[in-house]
Amino acid sequence: MISVKYFNSGMSGAPSLTNNWGDLIALLDACLVTGFALKTVNSLTCADGVATATISSGHSYAVGQVVTIAGCNEAAYNGEQRVTNVTSTTFQFAVAGTPTSPATTTSAISAKVAPLGWDKPFSGTNKAAYRSADVQSNRHYLRVDDAVKVAGAGVAGGADYTTTWAKWANVGICESMTDIDTPVGAQAPFDPARPTRNWAQVGANQWGWHKWYHARQGGSDFAGDGGASVKSWVLIGDGRTFYLLISYTGGGRSFYSFGDPIGFKTADGYSTMLCADDVADSNSGLSYVGQFNGYGLVASLDCTGKLLLRDYSQLGNPVRWGATSLQLSNGQSVSGRGSMPFPNGPDYAFWLLPMYMIQESAHARGLLPGIFWMPQNLPYTDLTIVDNVAGYAGRKFMLLRQAYVGNQEAMIAFDMTGPWR
What we know:
The chain is mainly beta. The chain has 1 helix and 28 strands.
C-alpha cells in the first residue's frame, strides 16, 4: 500500500460536509475505510512501464492522488497506484514489469480514490468507531458520535438540542469497546466525577465535551450552524495517524487529529493522541469563526483540546500535550509567522522543521508524524505544494493556512510523499 494519502472537498465524488447530523461519519467512512469516486475503466494499457487507464465518461482524478485499481487478471495493474498524469478521460501510473497490454478481466476493471485503509469495527446511527489496521499501532478506537443531541435523563435543565444550532461530533479515544455505545478501559477525555461527560448530557447547556465541528457560525453553539452550504475540508494521513481540517463557515480552518505519534518511549502503549475543540458548555462563545484559544497545532506549547490516552508511565487518566519546534524567542511561537527571513540568506532556502509533542508536565513524548513547523512568515499561498525544502530532497509538501487568533493566519506543512515513520 502507498502509505500517505490526501483528500479534499474539491475532489470529484468526495463526500459533502454540510449541517446535517451524520455528514462527518460519511466523510470519515469515505477517506478512512471505503474510498470514493468509483469508476469503470474502459481500457487499460501499458507501454515502457507506464499504464494508461481510459474512462470514456471522464474521471476527474488528479496528479498525486492514490487510486485503487481492481479486476485485472494481471496482478501488476491491481492495487494502489499514484496518478502521474491526467487528461479529461485518461490517467496514468507507473507499473512494474511488462504485464499484458491491454489488461484483461473476467468481469470489469474499476478505479476509485483509495482510502487510508483503517478499520471500522463498530457503528450505529450517525455513530462510528475507527481504528488503525496496522498491527504496529496502539489500535485504540476513535469514537465519533455525530448523532443529534438529546436531553440527559434526570439532568436539571436538560433539553433536546435545536436542529438549527451548531453541528458537531463528540469525539474521544477508547482503549477498547464491546459495541458502539460501550467503551472499555481508559478513555480520553475523561472526568472521573462524571464518567459520561463526553458522551451524554450531564448538565444544562452541555452536550459532550471534546468536539469536531462541521457547521458553526460565530458566537455560542446556540447562535446557529451557518446554513446548509457545503463546507471545505482537507484530510491527510497514513495508516496510523490522520489530520482533518475543516472550514465550516468559509472562515479559518479548524484543526483536528487522531492517531499514534512517533514515540520516544519503547512500547508506549498509551500514546494515542487526539486534537479537538475543548468546549463542554454550549454557552461558550467564539470571538470569531474557526478555532480559537490555540485549539489547533500552530501555536507552540498550547495544550487546549489536545490529549494523550495516558501519561508516559502508562498509568492514570489522560494527559494534555502541546506541539513545538525550534524556538527563536522566549515567548509562544506560531508556525508560519516566524522571524526567520524567507528565503533564508545563507542557503537561500525554504525551511521546515519537525514538530515535537510535549506533555503538559514538560516531558517530550514523541514526534508528530507527517506535519512540519514553518519558521518563516507566510512564504507561500494556501494549498501550495513545494519540493524545494532544505534537508528534504525528493519530498513534496502541501502548505495550508489556518486562522489562529482573530483573522490572523498561520501556516503549516504536510509531507505528501511519505513514509511518515
